[in-house]
Amino acid sequence: MLRSMTGFGRGEHTGKLKQVTVEIKAVNNRFGEVQIKIPYQYLSLEENIRRYVLSQVSRGRIDVYIKLKDTSQRPRELQVDKDLAVTYYKTLEELAAITGIPCEVNVQQIAQFPEVLTMCEKDEELDVIWQDIQPALQTAVSEMLEMREKEGRKLKEDLLARLQTLQQFRDKIFEKSPRVVQNYREKLNARLQELMIEDQIDEERLALEVALFADKCNIDEELVRLNSHFLQFAQNLEEDIAVGRKLDFLLQEINREVNTIGSKANDLEITQAVVELKSELEKIREQVQNIE
């Protein structure tokens, strides 16, 4: 199923040691990038969280916010970051010397600075905490994926409609292209008639000029390839895997064929159709940037 790269999910779970709240926000990104915000003392669980999220999504920037509240009655242990505490104190002394303001900070104030004091979790408790986090994380990811799939269905409908518009412009060019050479022959013949009063027109030379023009402006191959690309694009919209990169590549190929048609076709109506094709392609390209 086609999925967007934008979405939001939220999950809650009360486990053995922690009450967990997980919020996930997803936006566009060329690659799969997971950013995690979790209390400092649980940073060792980041890799578990990242691995799970990336097992469910392949593209997009995923921001994961995790809040943990203690629910157990077990004894709590505090861990002191001595180096950080000393750094805070020395920095305050330096600031006092610069400003001339007395440094009257006490131990209690230093202890309140970020990450000077942290709750110490034992390794075996971290395993339990990860088990507490998992259900909330799974719920949040599931909600996010549901939103992405819902948005993906809307994108699919829009892209199929725009693909049909591309096909209509392509068919218009196909119908017009056989007349281009004939129109050129008629215009060239009329021009020669104006310039040559008594001399007879050299039909062989005229046929050669027309043949050269026909070879130069032939767009049959490009039109065939456009049909093939349109078909592949529609087929990819039905896939159950991430197809954003494939669709982006196909759009580049379609754009290349359209540019070639525009440079070859010596006809006003075809040129106008090419302009419309390129305009619609740009709208499709913007939509595809949001597909996983």
Describe the protein:
There is one protein chain. Helix 1 (46-56) packs parallel to helix 4 (123-195) and helix 4 runs antiparallel to helix 5 (203-217). It is elongated and about 105 Å long. It starts with 6 loop residues before the first strand and ends with a helix. It is α+β, with helices and mostly antiparallel strands. The protein is 62% helix and 14% strand. The chain has a four-stranded mixed β-sheet with strand order 1-2-4-3. A two-stranded antiparallel sheet has the order 5-6. The chain folds into three domains: 7-73 and 123-149, Ribosomal Protein S5, domain 2; 78-111, no CATH class; 151-288, no CATH class.
Mean pLDDT: 84
General shape: elongated
Show unreliable segments.
none
Determine the strand fraction and express it as a percent band: 5-15%
Would you count the extended β strands for me?
6
How many helices? The count is 8
SS-derived structural category: alpha+beta
| Major sheet attributes | 4 strands, mixed
Radius of gyration, CA atoms, in whole angstroms: 33 Å
| Series of secondary-structure elements, N-terminal to C-terminal | EEEHEEHHEHHHHH
